[in-house]
C-alpha cells in the first residue's frame, strides 16, 4: 500500500481522529472505508444538500412576510369541515 497525502485542516483532523478513535479505528481506516463505500455505491455514500433554500421556499417566505406586513393573512375558516367544503367547491 502506498502513502498518499491529503490536506485536512488541523481542527477537522483532530476532531475526526477523536471520533474515529472512539469508534475503534484510525483516520486512515475511516478514509479507506469512505472511499470503498463510494466506489461500491458509485456515489458519495451520504446525502449532500444544498444549504441555500430553493426558489419556491424563498418565494413562500417573501409571500408570508408580505402577508404579515399588510395584515392580509388570507382566507380563514371556523372549522376543518368548512375548509374542505370550500376546497371542494373551488376544484370544479
UniProtKB/TrEMBL annotation:
It comes from the Bacteria. Keywords: Toxin-antitoxin system. One of its GO terms (biological process) is DNA-templated transcription. InterPro entries: Arc_rbn_hlx_hlx, RelB/DinJ. Belongs to the RelB/DinJ antitoxin family. This is RelB/DinJ family addiction module antitoxin. It comes from Leptotrichia shahii. The lineage of its organism: Bacteria, Fusobacteriati, Fusobacteriota, Fusobacteriia, Fusobacteriales.
